[in-house]
Amino acid sequence: MADSGTGIQELMAAETRASQIVAEARIGRGDRMKQAKVEAQELIDTYRAEKQEEFNNMVLSKGGSEGSASAKLQSDTNKEIKDMQALFQKNAQKAVDVLLSKCCEVSLEVPTARVRATQKLAGVTSQ
User: Fold this and answer.
1) CA pair distance 2, 4, nearest whole angstrom
2) Distance CA 75, CA 84 (A)
3) Rounded Cα gap, residues 116 and 125, in angstroms
4) Which of helix, strand or coil describes residue 100?
5) How far is CA 91 from the centre of its chain?
6) Angle (CA) 18 22 28, round 5°
7) Is residue 119 within 8 Å of 126, Cβ to Cβ?
8) Which DSSP category does 64 fall into?
9) Which letter does DSSP use for residue 1 in this model?
10) CB within 8 A of 66, min separation 6: which ones?
11) Fewer CB atoms inside 10 A, N or C side of the chain?
């Protein structure tokens, strides 16, 4: 009887130790995965920096005038913006005047179709 109690305790201790080993292995695996992810990201960043540098060198060697084209585009854009703003300033008052004249213009004439419709509803016959 004492042997079976001791055997059960040994089995329980072995099971506990196995659980600890599995838990440690999971933690170790997680740490290795994190480390691998960090190393992979470093490799990716290094590769990206190299390729960006190659691209920049290629652009400079082939096109060199990239900066001047960008500056010309910017100056053209600024000129067009100034032209549009000048046109707006020039025509703003005209637009306001047209809108005000249309809003304030009241016609006191009743359209003949409206007169006939009203007469028809009232039962008045036209002569």
Assistant:
1) 5
2) 14
3) 9
4) helix
5) 36
6) 140
7) yes
8) S
9) -
10) 59, 60
11) C
Residue written as token pair 């960008």: 70
Q: Which residue has the tokens 């509803």?
A: 121
Nearest 5 degrees, angle CA 103-CA 99-CA 93? 145
pLDDT, one tens digit for every residue, the chain (127 residues): 557 778 899 999 999 999 999 999 999 999 999 999 999 999 999 999 999 999 888 877 776 555 677 788 889 999 999 999 999 999 999 999 998 888 888 778 888 898 889 888 888 765 5
* Cβ neighbours, 10 Å, residue 122: 8
The SS3 of residue 57 is: helix
Q: Which amino acid is at 78?
A: N
CA distance 99 to 44: 61
Alpha-helical runs (H) found in the chain: 2-62, 66-104, 112-122
- Using the CB atoms, write b or e for 18-49: b if 16+ within 10 Å: eeeeeeeeeeeeeeeeeeeeeeeeeeeeeeee
Global pTM reads: 0.38
